[in-house]
Design a protein that fits this description.
two-stranded antiparallel sheet, 3 domains, Arc Repressor Mutant, subunit A, D-Maltodextrin-Binding Protein, domain 2, 283 residues, elongated, single chain
Length: 283
């Protein structure tokens, strides 16, 4: 019996359709269909009930699946232990790559070497890179879905206020938005999701300060101390070495939150990459 026939059978059983199984296996639908027919021929039985709604196991097919699936899973686990780690090219925001992810991240449970090969302040620039295959995955901010890609949440993040130790607001335990807008501010690039939320709030409340700088995340901290400015930043950025030189204050009634999503065109990458990134970003 060809092992590919067995793999096709198990995948269709789990996905419920030939088209989904073909996508997961990286094969054409006719090839997957042919594998199942050959398996049924060799076993001299019908394993699936075929309908417009998909593929459903027959009683014999269900018995066969229950017997074979545990053995297949054990075989896959043993094969994986001998398989070299996959090199996965990841696109991320600059502050994530510089703070959390070294040039290559190895997380044992994922069997992957995750390499940060591209950084962009505007995550939407990763979409054409993913389509062309220049990168294998990317992290997007507050953008949960896009046609043609698999995606999943990897981090829910809140915001805090960053300021220098000698700033006039340094003695407050918690700051309000009104206090923040009373001082010069440094904000991320105008293409960022946060800038759009921040600008909408500013216009709604009529806060008209002009001493505002828009800078990339990686340059933000260098300007805080020089300008007696403040910055409202993701809590994820409250990490060494920056927190040795700055104070971070809770923002009362904070209207800002963000969700980070992992995108990839390869379904098989989604779960192991999610596990690796959640493990890394939760520290």
């Amino acid at each position: 019996m060809n092992i590919r026939y067995l793999e096709a059978f198990l995948t269709i059983s789990e996905e419920g359709s030939i088209s989904k199984a073909a996508t997961r296996l990286g094969l054409t639908q006719p090839a997957v269909s042919r594998h199942v027919k050959e398996l049924e021929k060799s076993l001299n039985t019908t394993l699936f009930i075929r309908s417009h709604e998909g593929m459903t196991l027959t009683e014999t097919g269900q018995f066969f699946y229950n017997d074979v699936q545990p053995t297949w899973h054990e075989l896959q686990s043993k094969l994986d232990s001998f398989t070299p780690k996959k090199a996965v090219r990841l696109g991320v925001a600059p502050f994530i790559s510089s703070t959390y992810l070294p040039q290559t991240l190895t997380y044992e449970d994922s069997k992957m070497d995750i390499m940060c090969t591209r950084t962009q302040d505007n995550c939407f620039e990763f979409i054409p890179m993913l389509k062309k295959g220049d990168i294998d995955a990317a992290i997007f901010e507050d953008y949960p879905h896009h046609d043609g890609f698999y995606s999943t949440l990897v981090k829910h993040d809140e915001y805090q206020v960053a300021l220098a130790e000698d700033h006039p607001l340094a003695n407050f335990k918690e700051l309000s938005l009104e206090q923040c807008f009373s001082y010069p501010q440094i904000v991320p690039p105008k293409t960022s999701r946060f800038y759009q939320m921040w600008q909408a709030l500013r216009e709604k409340n009529g806060w008209r300060r002009k001493d505002i700088q828009s800078l990339p995340h990686r340059s933000l901290f260098h300007s805080l101390k020089q300008n007696h400015a403040i910055a409202i930043i993701p809590k994820l950025m409250v990490e060494p070495p920056w927190n040795q030189h700055f104070l971070f204050k809770r923002l009362s009634n904070c209207p800002f939150t963000r969700d980070l999503y992992l995108f990839t065109a390869k379904k098989s990458y989604l779960k192991p990459l999610q596990q690796s990134l959640v493990h890394t970003l939760q520290r």
